[in-house]
Write a structure and sequence with these properties.
Radius of gyration: 21 Å
Oligomer: single chain
Number of helices: 12
Length: 352
């Protein structure tokens, strides 16, 4: 039965016997229960399901999440993720520490940024191969971005193709080994008494932490709840992240935040929810339809990202032409569809 907690004898012997279970909301790709054991302890039981995938893909997601959580478990005082208490790979079940979420706070971003930096700093070159490298934009994404400019009747400066090729090279994750969450969105961050902890590591990978620090500027690109962070709050969270990273590693954060933001800009799949990624050229859809995901439309998300990249690259050595093109494309979108709304502010983020 789908609501029955999948606890085999090995799990019972290692963590205890379930007495009460509550099925929680989750994605179609997993089932999650809050379980009270016979000794009164609360735990979370998560089972990775096929969710439309072939079984091998579900097995991969299970292994990836367990590996990500165990790497995240290196952090202590405070932790940055729930502890893994037991696993049953045959049923793709993991038993996790139950976290008490303190819930809403208006000043949520500094703690989030600090925990994100602490998560990223947990791994290094010795961990190469422990998780896949992060996936970023491809040459096909760059071609789609240029095709979108053409569809909007925006001239492409001659230097842009070479700048995009250089961007793809610089975004190669191979030299970087930060532990990336993969989807650090509202709902996947819980406020505990000793700091923010992240859950749902199904997309965990190794790469450059700036890819996730960029969420603040680029509007939380893998999240249904897009947000726009500006001015003083943006400067504060980026300073918290960089200061935390430097304190833990003794080094400055490697890479270029403008590159990370431009990488998110040209990925059409960052305009749609996970189930629709890889199914179509999403940028090609934008001139004909303004499809909605969560609290914002594709054109609204795109205008925000274009404007961010244009602002960040005005004096950029390697992305100046891309920035000029981005500015022109943002203006063209607003000229064609003047009722597009700005992205919501962080004060309106959802709390679960």
């Amino acid at each position: 039965m789908p609501n029955r907690v999948p606890f085999n004898e090995e799990l019972r012997s290692s963590v205890g016997t379930p007495k009460q279970a509550e099925l929680l909301d989750s994605s179609p790709r997993s089932r999650v229960w809050r379980v009270r054991l016979a000794d009164g302890q609360l735990v979370i039981v998560k089972q990775i399901t096929d969710g439309g995938d072939v079984a091998a893909d579900a097995d991969t997601r299970f292994a990836r999440e367990v590996a990500g959580l165990r790497l995240a478990g290196r952090a202590s005082r405070p932790a940055v993720a729930p502890a893994v208490l037991a696993t049953d790979p045959s049923s793709r079940v993991m038993v996790l520490e139950h976290l008490h979420d303190l819930g809403r706070t208006d000043d949520w971003m500094p703690g989030y940024a600090e925990s994100l930096a602490r998560l990223h700093a947990l791994t290094g070159p010795a961990d190469a191969g422990a998780l896949p490298g992060s996936s970023g934009p491809t040459a096909t994404d760059a071609e789609s971005f240029l095709a979108l400019a053409g569809a909007l009747d925006v001239p492409v400066p001659p230097a842009v193709p070479d700048e995009l090729a250089g961007l793809l090279d610089r975004l190669d994750p191979t030299p970087h080994h930060a532990l990336l969450h993969g989807d650090p969105c509202p709902g996947n961050d819980l406020r505990s008494a000793d700091g923010v902890r992240f859950v749902d590591f199904e997309r965990a990978s190794l790469g450059n932490g700036l890819i996730e620090l960029a969420y603040f500027r680029i509007g939380f690109p893998t999240c249904w709840c897009a947000m726009s962070v500006t001015a003083a709050p943006l400067a504060e969270v980026e300073d918290v992240y960089r200061t935390t990273w430097r304190g833990l590693t003794g080094k400055d954060v490697p890479g270029d935040l403008a590159d990370a933001c431009a990488g998110w800009l040209i990925q059409g799949d960052a305009l749609v929810e996970r189930a629709h990624r890889g199914t179509a050229d999403q940028l090609a859809r934008v001139p004909a339809e303004d499809f909605t995901w969560g609290n914002a439309s594709a054109r609204e998300r795109l205008v925000h990202r274009l404007s961010v990249v244009a602002h960040m690259t005005r004096d950029h050595d390697h992305l100046h032409a891309v920035g000029h093109l981005s500015s022109t494309m943002a203006n063209r979108l607003l000229e064609n569809w003047p009722k597009l709304r700005p992205l919501p502010t962080p004060e309106t983020r959802p709390w679960y």
